[in-house]
Amino acid sequence: MAAEPDLDAVRALTLAATGGSISAAAAHLGISQQAVSARIRALESSLDAVLLVRSARGSRLTTAGELVVGWAAPLLAAADDFAAATAALRTDRRGTVRVAASLTIAEHLMPAWVAAWRVSTGDDGPAIRLEAANSTAVIEAVRSGSADLGFVETPVVPGDLGSVVVARDAIVVVVPRGHPWATRGRVSAADLAATSLVVREVGSGTRQALEDALAHAGHGDFAAPAAVLSTTLAVRSAVMGGLAPGALSSLAVADDIRAARLVPVPIRGLRIERPLTAVWLGAEPSATARKFLEVVAAVTWG
Predict the structure, then answer these.
(1) CA spacing 20 to 30 A to 214: which of 199, 249, 255, 290?
(2) Is 115 helix (H, G, I), strand (E, B) or coil?
(3) What b/e readout covers 102-122, taking b as 16+ CB neighbours within 10 angstroms?
């Protein structure tokens, strides 16, 4: 297995390239020029390649360095999103907006939303305090007042809550590459209903969307699950391990499908799409929650 990249070294190289010098990178990072040089040399040593050419006029990337900086851009962006999202788990900042989100939304959409919020409001702006749960628990948190804003995956939102659709998602049936369905082409809705699947727990929006779609297609008497698991990661792992086919958010399995770790199985006559919805108690969300929804809309819809 290849060694994982040193993010500090990759960031130092990127800043030296964009700033045109080691000193510019050092000033941005708040460390010495010697420390920046040491990080870049360590990265060059680990890759066995010269990445940056230093001279009296500044620093410039080699061809290999240009490739590394290009490859690093999404990695560093993801790291920044991760840092912003994990900051939402802390409670020590002023003006907190309490957000409850379903697991799929919390895992795959919330990091980018929180990162954009931090950019919009600055480090001293209101914090997003995040709690992740299934959609049923999110709705109860909003109703009880323990969350100012909720994000759910359920196809139908309770009428006593205010709501707005913030994104759309599809439920995908997936199998590992060696499964018979991987090369079958299409599977009928009747076959899917008759097959024991790996699914999320009752209360999960993903499971509810699947069961509602089968019921609407005339297959409400579906087989008992092969396993009921409480996290997306557990479902993915069970499917990859060959336990049974599974039904998951397209957001959750996009990377696995691209990497051919999982194979999507088209279901004849059944396409399961659902809205992802923000909910709040009362006629309107609070002013700060409304501003957060504006950031979410800008990130999601552009």
Answers:
(1) 255
(2) helix
(3) bbbbbbbbbbbbbbbbbeebe
